[in-house]
Design brief:
114 residues, alpha/beta, Oxidized Rhodanese, domain 1, 5 helices, globular
Length: 114
């Protein structure tokens, strides 16, 4: 899904396979951000992700790199979209989010770490 107002506002909803490939192709240029809560993060997360829980997003987002594209995910895709919209409002380079969240990622047996 892309925004309607030009390239600056384009937002990508990644499938798990698209995200896996995008992360490989853009290693070092983007940051994958898990916005789930602490107990969800402890239960497993996508390798290389950083943790910025939505409930403390203002505090956590301030620590995210400002010079890299941000891609968000959560359990099912709702919180990550909210975080993405907030990051965009704050002028951050929010590239997109993982549609279906880590649930979709896990359904394809893609790697998860603890």
């Amino acid at each position: 899904m892309f925004g309607l107002f030009g390239s600056r506002d384009k937002i990508k909803t990644f499938t798990p396979a698209e995200l896996r490939d995008f992360l490989r192709e853009n290693e070092g240029a983007c940051v994958l951000v898990d916005v789930r809560e602490d107990h969800e993060w402890a239960g497993g997360h996508i390798p290389g992700a950083v943790h910025a829980p939505l409930s403390r997003f203002a505090e956590a987002a301030d620590k995210l790199p400002k010079d890299k594209s941000l891609i968000f995910y959560c359990q099912g895709g709702v919180r990550s979209k909210r975080a993405l919209d907030t990051a965009k409002e704050w002028g951050r380079n929010a590239e997109g989010h993982l549609g279906g969240g880590i649930s979709a990622w896990r359904s394809l047996d893609l790697p998860v770490t603890r």
